[in-house]
Amino acid sequence: MTRRSCAIYATGIVCAHLLIVGIALVVAQVFQTMIHSRLKKEITLTEKSQMFESWKNPPPPVYMEYYFFNVTNSEVFLAGGKAAVKQIGPYTYREYRPRENVTFLENGTKLYALNPKTFVFVPEKSAGDPEVDIIRTVNIPFVAIMNELNSYSFILRTLVSIYMNSLGIEMFMSRTVHEVLWGFKDPLLSKVHSMKPDVDEYFGLMWKKNGTHEGEFVFHTGEENYMDYGKIDTWNGLREMSWWSSNRSNMINGTDGAVFHPLINRNELLYIFAADLCRSIHLAYVKDVEVKGIQAYRFAPPNDVLMSPKENPTNAGFCVPAGDCLGTGLLKVSVCREGAPIVVSFPHFYQADPMYINAIDGLSPNKEEHETYLDLQPTTGVPIRACKRAQLNIILKRVQGFPKTKYITETIFPIMFVNETATIDDDSASQMRTLLLIVTLVSNFPLLIVGLGIILLLVLVVLFCRNRQKKNEVKRIDFTEAFHSFTTVKDDTAYTQVSDKPDEPSETPASQPMRNGSYIAMSPVEAQKC
């Protein structure tokens, strides 16, 4: 057997083995199953897990951008006209949120933690100085007192109204951004505090929230089931809430938004419990995106999350008392936040009923600036980019006994909205890309084997064709040489013709005997002579 034949046979054997093994591995999904099993074991909130440290001290910077609605015609609104507002901001703060008092429970299957948040002003990302810029907005303590007295007698409400007028307290106030956000000593609350010490005399939208936490959380580590990774077990000792009007609405579902289980698919709904909203919300897949070279799935709250119970009956449980419902796009959270009738929506009433948008001049909702979304890397479940956007509103309506509300039209009045953003940092993004490259290579290793087998198959075909061509050329050369030898012999040989004439005597040497008949002689041409 020639060397060429050996090479062909060896290539064929290797090719066959590669194709058989590769196709078998692809069909059985051995490597993909192995990688998925590894991810399920590694992505947990245990001390040995690489994810634990990033969960405990999140590396991506989180920024809180606060935008305020400055009221430009408060007198017109009090006279029964349409309010007009102008958006100002952002006033940006860097948010730090380390996990503290981390304690493992129940053999490492659960985890207790606090999540205090600290805010630091970032001037270079802000539109102005919050301690200088003055805004005109709704006097929330005024509305809170008025709302609290709504169930009392008309006489008491009238007396309180007269007293408030004597203090010069109006429905709208002018304060600096810093005061409205982080607190100021309110004259009305100070009077109430003197009578009821449990009432704080300071007011601010973020009063006592700098350096504090939103409650005590117990999380599942994912040790028992990877699908439970990061899910909330209890919040402030509760597995369900009590202030909504249905069991479904009171459920505490999902994670706190910091982590999600690995191997996310496009068809599932992801749940987040938002303590500031006092409820769980779900997110649905929107589209594929790319963030810093990392492929991700974008999830966002669908329209039905804040849809009116008339259109989505499952939201009836968020009407408190039962049957007292707002329209699409609004959620009344005053049931879990004592005081003013606070309503939450998306910024500029995005996805809300148009009647709320048209009730105020100066609003222009759009998806790009006002949608809440979360970009997740589906293999690991790690958030790559997040934008949480929520607007704070207050219900303004007529209250008997308070003459200043006599002409106003009931309105969901916007106060401010926040844009909470976080994007994976460059170092973490680089590590993520490396990890995903390794996962991709290992998962697709059977395909690489099949590909190599196909390449060798092509090489085998080429070698076989060239071998056949070589054999044909050898045969052709042998035939040509044989034919050439034959023609050469023919050309170099002559035959003398047989004479038809009778024999004539000729003189011959005496020594040569006489021969009878015709004599045929074959001799070289050069020897013939006439």
TrEMBL record:
Alphabetical list of InterPro entries matching this protein = CD36_fam, LimpII
Alphabetical list of Pfam families matching this protein? CD36 (PF01130)
Has UniProt tagged this entry with the keyword Membrane?
Answer: yes
Question: Which keywords does this chain's UniProt record carry?
Answer: Glycoprotein, Membrane, Transmembrane, Transmembrane helix
Q: Can you cite a GO biological process for this protein?
A: protein targeting to lysosome
Q: Which PANTHER family match?
A: LYSOSOME MEMBRANE PROTEIN 2 (PTHR11923:SF56), SCAVENGER RECEPTOR CLASS B TYPE-1 SR-B1 (PTHR11923)
Q: What is this protein called?
A: Lysosome membrane protein 2-like isoform X1
